[in-house]
Design a protein that fits this description.
Elements lengths: L7 H8 L36 H8 L5 E6 L5 H7 L2 E3 L20 E6 L2 H11 L15 E4 L1 H4 L4 H16 L4 E4 L5 H22 L18
Parallel strand pairs: 4-5
Antiparallel strand pairs: 1-3, 2-3
Length: 223
C-alpha cells in the first residue's frame, strides 16, 4: 500500500481541535470519473465534482466543515450545487503538501462550511498569514467577469447568476463588471493542457497511466 505523509491542512485542523469523521467520496483521482455521491437536496441531481462528498456531507448536516481540492472548479462547483459555502483560497495560501496532486501548478486546498462565519473560522486555521479584520459594517466591492466568461454558462445558469447579482446590489454591494477574463477560451485551453501534462507525470511516477478523457474536463467532474 502506498504511504504518504499527513497533509499540513489536516494537521492544522487537528491541532486546532478538529475531530475527523472520515474520508468523503471524490471523483477518481479528483479528476474525471464521478463517484456515487448524490445531492442531498435532490438525490436525482449531481452534487457537482470532484469534491462532491465533502460538499454533500456539509449540506446534509453530517459535519460543519469538510476539506476539498480544486484544480479547475472542484470546490466552487459542488458548493454551488449543494447550497453550501465553498472557499477556494488564493494560490499558495493553504499548503498542498501531503495531498495527492493533479496539477501542482494549479492545485488548491479548499473547504466547505454551512455558513460564512464557519468559513472564516476555518480560514484562520488553514491559511498562511491570515488576518481577521474587526467587524466594521464595510461591504466590499465585488468584481464580476464580463461577457466572454459568462457566455460559457447556459441560459438558465446565466439568468440565475444575474438574479444573484441583483440581490447583492439590493443588499448594498457595489458590483463592478471586468473584462479580466475576456481571453477565457485561450485560458481554458492552456489550463487543460497544463493539467493533463502534469497529471500524466504524477501518475507515471506512481506506476499508472491515467485514461485520457475524450471530452474537455471542465464540462464534467473535474478537480
Amino acid at each position: 500500500m502506498l504511504e504518504a505523509p499527513e497533509s499540513t491542512a489536516w494537521t492544522r485542523l487537528a491541532d486546532a481541535g478538529a475531530v475527523p469523521l472520515g474520508k468523503t467520496v471524490t471523483a477518481e483521482f479528483a479528476y474525471f470519473a464521478p463517484g456515487p455521491t448524490r445531492n442531498p437536496h435532490d438525490p436525482g441531481r449531481t452534487p457537482g465534482g470532484s469534491s462532491s462528498g465533502s460538499a454533500a456531507a456539509v449540506a446534509a448536516g453530517l459535519c460543519p466543515l469538510a476539506l476539498g481540492t480544486q484544480t479547475v472548479g472542484s470546490v466552487v462547483r459542488p458548493a454551488a450545487f449543494c447550497g453550501v459555502v465553498g472557499v477556494k483560497p488564493s494560490f499558495g495560501r493553504v499548503p498542498t503538501d501531503g495531498v495527492v496532486p493533479v496539477s501542482t501548478s494549479v492545485d488548491h486546498v479548499g473547504w466547505f462550511t454551512q455558513d460564512v462565519a464557519g468559513a472564516e473560522l476555518a480560514a484562520a486555521v488553514l491559511c498562511d498569514d491570515w488576518d481577521t479584520l474587526p467587524e466594521s459594517g464595510f461591504r466590499p466591492t465585488l468584481g464580476v467577469p464580463a461577457e466572454a466568461y459568462l457566455d460559457q454558462a447556459d441560459e438558465v445558469g446565466r439568468r440565475r447568476f444575474e438574479a444573484q447579482l441583483d440581490a447583492l446590489d439590493q443588499a448594498g454591494y457595489e458590483i463592478v463588471r471586468t473584462d479580466v477574463l475576456d481571453d477565457v477560451e485561450a485560458v481554458n485551453e492552456r489550463h487543460e493542457r497544463l493539467m493533463a501534462g502534469e497529471m500524466a507525470l504524477v501518475h507515471r511516477e506512481r506506476g499508472g497511466t491515467p485514461t485520457t478523457p475524450t471530452t474537455t474536463p471542465r464540462r464534467h467532474a473535474t478537480s
